[in-house]
């Protein structure tokens, strides 16, 4: 039996039935990590001892017939911007290279409480800014499907950890597509639920009104299962109201493909989309139609400005969020200063990478007294217009469908300009701008690179995306 190929729910069942031990399972993953992670560069920290200790504890509990949590028998990796108590949390930045988290994020607490086995902290773009993991201080994570290509980003390590069979599930974060796009690039399912579904407490903030924890796995069932555990309101995060539609057995609230009203944004017709992505998408639409879905193109005018609005608003939130990394509170401190001014400037110049600096500069400019009216306020207005436009589409449609990314995983040595890279997020950033959920489900053809198809439900109706994803999974 090849344990590491199984989904999380499958390993759990084997464990509960007594067919395998958790120790056996953890050793199988650790062996694979030892074999392949040197080449792929997925983990920043492997939590070998903790994973072994937890596995042993679970094996003993089962032996004695003690109650086991909902995650018992499932091995999980965690993006390195999510706090795990007493474990290094770097956000893939030199700034936090030796920072050890003194507490657990709420999502970590929930997983631990349900007996998940955490196997390690995985690579990402520095502070989650990027789409390739190439902006990590620890170097790029290669795509297990094709190691000459990126695994995507910013949760590239999360996607690669599941695709490389280092674990069954990974937690990522998604501010503008960082769960969905790497899932698409690595042939996995990845979902970011509606904003406010899951607590952000203990998750390093990039842009608070956009950030949301998401789950990557090999199957929609796994993703749904873990989201149902993570969902829930939280007093530590005032924007977190929970999301009942993520509880299990809500399928009755969702429509099946027969009669489903599907909208495709018409930018898809004009935007440059790679041939293999276009083909996979058209194939998906044909499949949905054959099952009785009614599909039509819709015009969403504000999408033309989505990338611009996203970068103005996100950078406006990033700049103040990054101000806490000042060399004094915590993290890296330069050893070369004579006064406080030099301490700040040198610490931040030496501690942050290029992309983070670029965003801090743009964000500070945008938020300055002289420019905030021109950029920030107008973009906020546009964000509201976009929400209204999407809401009116949802009045007559159940879901919006588009590719997750206009390209398949890009080659590692491809050197696109920052703006070219930003443009590739066209299909994912609107979801975070309007605060709804989005799931990427793989359309994987033999001998071809994976393509992700994205399903966007109305805000708070995440079960509809999950239900549709289940019907597409394995059929497209
Ligand atoms: N690629 C997007 C960006 O660079 C999204 C990042 C994210 O979702 N964390 O901003």
From TrEMBL:
<dbReference type="InterPro" id="IPR023631">
    <property type="entry name" value="Amidase_dom"/>
</dbReference>
<dbReference type="GO" id="GO:0016740">
    <property type="term" value="F:transferase activity"/>
</dbReference>
<keyword id="KW-0808">Transferase</keyword>
<protein>
    <recommendedName>
        <fullName>Glutamyl-tRNA(Gln) amidotransferase subunit A</fullName>
        <ecNumber>6.3.5.7</ecNumber>
    </recommendedName>
</protein>
<dbReference type="Pfam" id="PF01425">
    <property type="entry name" value="Amidase"/>
</dbReference>
<feature type="active site" description="Charge relay system">
    <location>
        <position position="79"/>
    </location>
</feature>
<dbReference type="InterPro" id="IPR000120">
    <property type="entry name" value="Amidase"/>
</dbReference>
<comment type="function">
    <text>Allows the formation of correctly charged Gln-tRNA(Gln) through the transamidation of misacylated Glu-tRNA(Gln) in organisms which lack glutaminyl-tRNA synthetase. The reaction takes place in the presence of glutamine and ATP through an activated gamma-phospho-Glu-tRNA(Gln).</text>
</comment>
<dbReference type="InterPro" id="IPR020556">
    <property type="entry name" value="Amidase_CS"/>
</dbReference>
<dbReference type="GO" id="GO:0030956">
    <property type="term" value="C:glutamyl-tRNA(Gln) amidotransferase complex"/>
</dbReference>
<keyword id="KW-0648">Protein biosynthesis</keyword>
<dbReference type="GO" id="GO:0005524">
    <property type="term" value="F:ATP binding"/>
</dbReference>
<feature type="domain" description="Amidase">
    <location>
        <begin position="24"/>
        <end position="462"/>
    </location>
</feature>
<keyword id="KW-0547">Nucleotide-binding</keyword>
<comment type="similarity">
    <text>Belongs to the amidase family. GatA subfamily.</text>
</comment>
<dbReference type="InterPro" id="IPR036928">
    <property type="entry name" value="AS_sf"/>
</dbReference>
<keyword id="KW-0436">Ligase</keyword>
<keyword id="KW-0067">ATP-binding</keyword>
<feature type="active site" description="Charge relay system">
    <location>
        <position position="154"/>
    </location>
</feature>
<feature type="active site" description="Acyl-ester intermediate">
    <location>
        <position position="178"/>
    </location>
</feature>
<comment type="subunit">
    <text>Heterotrimer of A, B and C subunits.</text>
</comment>
<dbReference type="GO" id="GO:0050567">
    <property type="term" value="F:glutaminyl-tRNA synthase (glutamine-hydrolyzing) activity"/>
</dbReference>
<dbReference type="InterPro" id="IPR004412">
    <property type="entry name" value="GatA"/>
</dbReference>
<dbReference type="GO" id="GO:0006412">
    <property type="term" value="P:translation"/>
</dbReference>
């Amino acid at each position: 039996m090849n344990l590491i190929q199984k989904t999380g729910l499958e390993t759990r069942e084997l464990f509960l039935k007594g067919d395998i031990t958790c120790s056996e399972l953890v050793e199988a993953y650790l062996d694979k990590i030892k074999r392949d992670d040197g080449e792929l560069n997925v983990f920043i920290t492997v939590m070998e001892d903790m994973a072994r200790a937890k596995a042993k504890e679970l094996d003993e509990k089962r032996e004695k017939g003690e109650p086991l949590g909902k995650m018992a028998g499932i091995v999980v990796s965690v993006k390195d911007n999510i706090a795990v108590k007493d474990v290094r949390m770097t956000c893939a930045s030199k700034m936090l290279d030796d920072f050890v988290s003194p507490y657990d994020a709420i999502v970590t607490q929930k997983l631990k409480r349900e007996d998940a086995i955490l196997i390690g902290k995985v690579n990402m773009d520095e502070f989650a800014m990027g789409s390739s993991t190439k902006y990590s201080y620890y170097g790029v994570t290669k795509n297990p499907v094709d190691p000459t290509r990126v695994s995507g980003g910013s949760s590239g390590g999360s996607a690669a950890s599941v695709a490389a069979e280092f674990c069954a599930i990974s937690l990522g974060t998604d501010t503008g597509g960082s769960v969905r796009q790497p899932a698409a690039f690595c042939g996995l399912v990845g979902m970011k639920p509606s904003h406010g579904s899951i607590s952000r407490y203990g998750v390093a903030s990039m842009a608070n009104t956009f950030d949301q924890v998401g789950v990557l796995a090999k199957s929609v069932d796994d993703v749904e299962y873990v989201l149902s555990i993570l969902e829930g309101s939280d007093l530590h995060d005032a924007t977190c109201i929970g999301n009942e539609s993520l509880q299990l057995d809500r399928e009755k609230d969702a429509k099946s493909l027969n009669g489903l009203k599907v909208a495709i944004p018409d930018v898809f017709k004009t935007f440059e989309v790679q041939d293999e992505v276009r083909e996979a998408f058209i194939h998906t639409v044909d499949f949905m139609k054959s099952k009785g879905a009614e599909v039509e193109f819709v015009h969403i005018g504000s999408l033309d400005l989505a990338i611009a609005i996203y970068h103005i608003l996100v950078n406006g939130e990033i700049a103040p969020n990054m101000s806490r990394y000042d060399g004094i509170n915590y993290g890296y401190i330069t050893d070369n200063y004579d006064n406080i001014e030099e301490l700040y400037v040198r610490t931040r110049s030496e501690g942050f990478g290029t992309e983070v600096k670029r965003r801090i500069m743009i964000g500070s400019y945008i938020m300055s007294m002289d420019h905030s009216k021109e950029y920030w306020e107008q973009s906020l207005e546009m964000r509201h217009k976009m929400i209204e436009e999407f809401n009116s589409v949802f009045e007559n449609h159940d879901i919006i469908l588009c590719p997750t990314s206009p390209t398949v995983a890009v080659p590692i040595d491809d050197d696109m300009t920052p703006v070219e890279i930003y443009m590739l997020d066209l299909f994912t950033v609107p979801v975070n701008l309007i605060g709804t959920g989005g799931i990427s489900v793989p359309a994987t053809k033999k001998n071809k690179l994976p393509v992700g198809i994205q399903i966007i439900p109305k805000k708070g109706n995440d079960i509809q995306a999950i239900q549709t994803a289940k019907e597409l999974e394995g059929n497209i």
